[in-house]
Amino acid sequence: MSTVFHNPLSIPVLGFCAYSGTGKTTLLKQLIPVLKQRGLRLAVLKHAHHNFDVDIPGKDSYEMRKAGARQMLVASHVRWALMTEDPQETDPDLVHLLQQLEADKADLVLVEGFKKLALPKIELHRAALGKPFIYTEDPNILAVACCDETQLPAQILRLDINNVEQIADFVLQYAATWRPPHPVVKPLPLDAGETGDGDNLSVRQGIDKILAQVQPISATETLMLDDSDNRILACDAVSPVDVPQQTNSAMDGYAFVHREPLPEAFEVKGEVLAGHSYDAQLQLGQAVRIMTGAPLPTGANAVQPRELANEADGYVRFSGTLKAGQNVRLAGEDIAKGAVALAGGSRLGAAEQGLLASLGFAQISAVRRPVVAVFSSGDEVCQPGSELKPNCIYDSNRFTIKAMAKRLGCDVIDLGIIEDSEAALTAALAGAAAKADVVISSGGVSVGNADYIKKVLAAIGEVHFWRINMRPGRPLAFGKVNDALFFGLPGNPVATMVVFLLFVQPALRKLAGELDWQPQLLPAIADETFKSRQGRTEFSRAIARIGADGQLHVTSTGSQGSGMLSSMVKGNCLAVIGDQDERVAAGQPLYILPFGALL
Ligand code: AMP
Ligand code: MG
């Protein structure tokens, strides 16, 4: 059978197939009004002969299309039609065609033709025609509609080709029970990767080799909680208190003793506000008015919200259900005294800072920030703000690198642009390595110019020049200059960013003391074809958004030149086509790597 069909829509697609002469169109013309009358909104997609036309010579739309318009859209206030000239060698791509439909305005797509595709179908069969069955070759046939004289095995669902109501029943049942398929879970593309030879590495191998060289910073400093944003907690925060401290009310209402038999009415003994307490023991049949967060009186074990209570003459009556423990927060239910409230290695965001504050911490111990020195190289690279010389390019890499490093909580030293001379480069590198934990440069690591930077690095450090099987960002230099880690990123601006995200980011996070950080890949569905090459991991700039089917869908930002920073601006993620895949077709699952908070 033909290729697998992935329905890209959030509504079911059902095909009708038959040999010509069976009466497919005749049946559909009878079926459609019945389905419509029963409340089903329909879209129909029909396969046609290659030289079909819906327009008529002489009509403006026909003439304009013939004059060369690739697309022609004619519209009135009741109807519109879009005609597209899309000549292809092979049959039209059903997934692409389905995507042209307004799936939010239909409940089902009926497909006529496309007999060879593996979509769910009803086969129409007339014994009188003497044609073979399709179901014997095609496992996607859900039912065969045929005449009385036709013999079918018992396991094949049989419909009466002359009973339109019965076929409609089947279609309605199919539409009602259909659910969108979950995307197929594939192995994570960054976990894959065969052993390359020598300096030729897969993405995973590159990351692993780098992380093996990174020793987390051990120096710590004490910080006020207010100054701890985006810092890494140096050791476990153990809770000195129960959170909440006391068992308290989760609602404004009445606290009472829940024990059978419950009285009809409860005597209201008083009121407890947050920050206060009711000091007597509450007895069965008694209640106190209580505010959210106020401690429960001893003896009380339930709270009824104010909306379900009616107080009169010193007594309260409850409506609604009453259960022991309802609307009560137990002491220590969030965090118990002595428990690890936040593990060392956590990055402190808003929630973490709030949690530490809720435990009473005013200060914390944080890992010292990594210091990152950044420079650019290349005689063609110019400082923004200065005049752009002929044949030159403004330095953008230093700015993307600095911004990403700062967002990761690093202190950044900007070394500017270093001219292409051995002496200048040697001095810059040695100086940077003395001050920084990590030195990052961009440019000058591709095969053409690697020899030059190699010579300098060989003299003052140990650096490997790798070819990573990825695009963009094939060349990468990594090693050590004195005690500092050195990254030589590729010069192309998009490659610089992608290589930073994939290789520098995990290294900086590990260095900063963050525990076991992994890139967050998300499964999504390709809304167009993403191309790659087997043996190479492709990172296409892409836009991910939730589709009408509630699943994550991804489209490319367009041209993928590795110098086009605008693609990083337009996109919100990288679509990752792993080294096992040659391409990911429209409608197929793939993984994305959201840029997240780093860009
Ligand atoms: P290279 O790796 O030095 O051969 O550089 C590859 C490409 O990236 C060339 O087109 C360079 O002009 C460009 N490039 C190198 N460094 C920078 C930079 N700092 N900012 C922007 N583009 C750069
Ligand atoms: Mg260069």
From TrEMBL:
<dbReference type="InterPro" id="IPR036135">
    <property type="entry name" value="MoeA_linker/N_sf"/>
</dbReference>
<feature type="domain" description="MoaB/Mog">
    <location>
        <begin position="373"/>
        <end position="510"/>
    </location>
</feature>
<dbReference type="InterPro" id="IPR005110">
    <property type="entry name" value="MoeA_linker/N"/>
</dbReference>
<dbReference type="InterPro" id="IPR008284">
    <property type="entry name" value="MoCF_biosynth_CS"/>
</dbReference>
<dbReference type="Pfam" id="PF03453">
    <property type="entry name" value="MoeA_N"/>
</dbReference>
<keyword id="KW-0460">Magnesium</keyword>
<keyword id="KW-0479">Metal-binding</keyword>
<dbReference type="InterPro" id="IPR036425">
    <property type="entry name" value="MoaB/Mog-like_dom_sf"/>
</dbReference>
<dbReference type="GO" id="GO:0046872">
    <property type="term" value="F:metal ion binding"/>
</dbReference>
<comment type="similarity">
    <text>Belongs to the MoeA family.</text>
</comment>
<dbReference type="InterPro" id="IPR001453">
    <property type="entry name" value="MoaB/Mog_dom"/>
</dbReference>
<keyword id="KW-0501">Molybdenum cofactor biosynthesis</keyword>
<dbReference type="GO" id="GO:0006777">
    <property type="term" value="P:Mo-molybdopterin cofactor biosynthetic process"/>
</dbReference>
<dbReference type="InterPro" id="IPR004435">
    <property type="entry name" value="MobB_dom"/>
</dbReference>
<dbReference type="GO" id="GO:0005525">
    <property type="term" value="F:GTP binding"/>
</dbReference>
<protein>
    <recommendedName>
        <fullName>Molybdopterin molybdenumtransferase</fullName>
        <ecNumber>2.10.1.1</ecNumber>
    </recommendedName>
</protein>
<keyword id="KW-0500">Molybdenum</keyword>
<dbReference type="InterPro" id="IPR036688">
    <property type="entry name" value="MoeA_C_domain_IV_sf"/>
</dbReference>
<comment type="pathway">
    <text>Cofactor biosynthesis; molybdopterin biosynthesis.</text>
</comment>
<dbReference type="Pfam" id="PF03454">
    <property type="entry name" value="MoeA_C"/>
</dbReference>
<keyword id="KW-0808">Transferase</keyword>
<dbReference type="InterPro" id="IPR012182">
    <property type="entry name" value="MobB_MoeA"/>
</dbReference>
<dbReference type="Pfam" id="PF00994">
    <property type="entry name" value="MoCF_biosynth"/>
</dbReference>
<dbReference type="InterPro" id="IPR005111">
    <property type="entry name" value="MoeA_C_domain_IV"/>
</dbReference>
<dbReference type="GO" id="GO:0005829">
    <property type="term" value="C:cytosol"/>
</dbReference>
<dbReference type="GO" id="GO:0061599">
    <property type="term" value="F:molybdopterin molybdotransferase activity"/>
</dbReference>
<dbReference type="InterPro" id="IPR027417">
    <property type="entry name" value="P-loop_NTPase"/>
</dbReference>
<dbReference type="Pfam" id="PF03205">
    <property type="entry name" value="MobB"/>
</dbReference>
<dbReference type="InterPro" id="IPR038987">
    <property type="entry name" value="MoeA-like"/>
</dbReference>
<comment type="function">
    <text>Catalyzes the insertion of molybdate into adenylated molybdopterin with the concomitant release of AMP.</text>
</comment>
